[in-house]
Write a structure and sequence with these properties.
Its EC number is 3.1.1.61, 3.5.1.44. By secondary structure, the protein is α/β, with parallel strands linked by helices. The protein folds into 2 domains: 4-129, Rossmann fold (3-Layer(aba) Sandwich), CATH 3.40.50; 154-337, Rossmann fold. It contains 11 helices and 14 strands. The chain has helices at residues 13-24, 38-48, 64-74, 87-99, 120-129, 163-171, 189-199, 256-262, 283-291, 309-315, 325-337, and strands spanning 4-9, 29-35, 52-56, 79-83, 103-106, 154-159, 181-185, 206-209, 220-223, 229-233, 241-245, 270-274, 295-299, 321-323. A hairpin with a 7-residue loop joins strand 10 (229-233) and strand 11 (241-245). Helix 9 (283-291) crosses helix 10. The chain is elongated and about 60 Å long. The N and C termini lie far apart (43 Å). The model is unreliable at 138-145 (pLDDT under 50).
Amino acid sequence: MKPLRVLIVDDSATMRRLIRSILEADSRLAVVAEAGTAREARDAVNTHRPDVMTLDVEMPSMSGLEFLKRLMRHRPMPVVMVSTLTRRGSDVAVEAMALGAVDCVEKPKLGDGLENFSRLSEMVVLAARARLPGPRSAQVPRSRPIREQQFHRICLIGGSTGGVDAIERVLQRFPPDCPPTLITQHMPEPFLVSFAARLDPLVAPRVRLATDGAVLEPGLVMIAPGGATHLNLSGPVDMGVTLHKGPPVSGHRPSVDSMFLSALPMAHRVAAGILTGMGRDGAEGMAALRQAGARTLGQSEESCIVFGMPRVAGELGGVEQWADLDVFGDEILRLCESPAHARAT
């Protein structure tokens, strides 16, 4: 196979050299051009026709976000955002992923070595081979009418690559009185702070970062804060959440498997969904939940950016039903309406 053609866009020549050195060490990748401004990037896209781009979040003249918007309108292509961990950098990176960027990687800090870039090559390869997201549905205002149905189950959702856009679309279908909902999305801690802040005004339910000991409530969506913790259910009696400090589970922290497996004692009161993402985090937990009485839903292959986590969950028998992204929110709400004692067949 021919190497994938990469365009590097960053206003720092030092950062461009660093990214080039990492990517060119991977035989699957070939850097065909570099650009220091949005104008140079536009010309490089037209001249070199790259398969994938790394794009700096914060650039002079025209921001990476504005350039991404124009790129996705006129020549959609896979993009990996490269961000500093400033508040603005995190905010813009999350918005970029909602607009269609496949993933985001943190820039290394001075003195921290290259740990943040340890997966850069794999992320770029994955992005180049990923499906680009389809057109976004209209945003749903907070005034969306309350559903007449009664929810009997807790909603648990896990996602990874492509999950920012997917989760937004799912929650746009949720009413203000949605079932208590927990979400684990693979992202660095500062990005998760920005993600929760971005979602709250865009959807009808309240969206918050989870805190240790928080109580599950109708109309409240809690997102795993990441960092050193996993987001788990605390038990069938108090029905709260715990932020569990521990090593990565299934290669991730926060981990979808950790959240799903913590819900086993109350599986008959759970509806679990697994969204686009690479790898297998959440697959074993979903299979165990379904076996124990949970209702389960997987995002369809056709609508996934990366059909990894849902695919493995299906192979392990964890997916009861499949749904395209545009109807995923409606379908998981329907599962939450099913009586808590009902078992899937």
